[in-house]
Amino acid sequence: MKTLTVTEGRGRLGYWLRQAVQGEDIGFLFEGKVVALRPVDVYSGDYALQEYGLSKQEMAIGEKKIAREIASARARGEISKFTGSRHDFD
Length: 90
Hints:
Elements: E1 2-5, H1 6-10, H2 13-21, E2 26-30, E3 33-37, H3 47-52, H4 56-75
Parallel strand pairs: 1-2
Antiparallel strand pairs: 2-3
């Protein structure tokens, strides 16, 4: 593993990220610990589950609540559906 200080890596961060993507073990020494650079797969479908630690049930409840709030705001005329038209921004 190539281990760098933050100062060493800062100037060539793009280079070190590229090296990590190509499979080289790269680590940064930060506050006495080595923090590794590694590519990860991102699954946007379960982002909230991973990022916020929600259960699937909590996420489903949240989705329903958000949908109700949007419908209510539309009914009050506070928001309108985005159609992709430039007129949506008027």
